[in-house]
Amino acid sequence: MRRGLRTGLIAGASALALLLSFGSGTAVGFMADLGRSSSQAGSTQIQDPGSFTPGQGFGRGTTTLPGQGSGSGSGSGSGTQSGTGRGTSVTSPEATTAQKAGVVTIDSALTYENAAGAGTGIILSSDGTILTNNHVVSGATSIRVTVESTGKAYVGKVVGTDATNDVAVLKLEGASGLTPAKLDTDGAQVGEAVTGVGNAGGTGTLTAATGQVTALGQTITTQSEGTAAGETLTDLIQTDAPIVSGDSGGPLVDAEGEVVGIDTAASSGSEQIAG
């Protein structure tokens, strides 16, 4: 592991990902380059219905509220947001043993009665430093983190967040001897084969969604319903890997199994990227 790269990940300056799904059902992910900077190559805007809304995109990885079902719901604007409830229409194969190395699933209890969230994270150090999305753990009253290579669960504590870039760092209580994820230092290339590994649908089983890098240096703006302001995320890698809700915080890896980005959110609809 290279200390400089790890520090950059914790700072959250470039470890980001966003996902859009177009009308054809193909998911388009926007992954931040972990190794280098790229110029902006276009922009788009998607609606963020909020961290606590089931059945729409940009949930807390996945979010379950008492008395409400899962599935897809309508978002404002031209697109339909993908569901954040448990389950998904996109089915990817279960991750292999090698793909599970350095990856954790995250389950959190939220601040209102019987509400729960689920997402994914990446192991950065052998003593339990975890990188995930801020929206996976924001508002959590307790966090349970399972190391998928061993099945062992730990209590996770938030030790740092950057809400603007949607990243958070957790520390696992009593952890030691963990296998960190391998981090890429060369930078992704257009056409490169990649795989998104994550807790798809919040089921607790890691899946592997394969695709290719389709563009670099992308820009996207997230926006909550009923508000004019939104967060602009830049220097993102675009991929067609079918990454879905619950994958938030999970790694996008290259053919060598090295992490080139992390997933942040998913949305579906007819939004277009302006080149």
UniProtKB/TrEMBL annotation:
The keyword Oxidoreductase does not apply. It holds the Pfam family Trypsin_2. One of its GO terms (biological process) is proteolysis. The keyword Protease applies. Keywords: Hydrolase, Protease. InterPro entries: Chloro_Bact_Ser_Proteases, Peptidase_S1_PA, Peptidase_S1C. It comes from the Bacteria. GO terms for molecular function: serine-type endopeptidase activity. PANTHER family: PEPTIDASE S12, PROTEASE DO-LIKE 8, CHLOROPLASTIC. This is Septum formation initiator. It comes from Clavibacter nebraskensis.
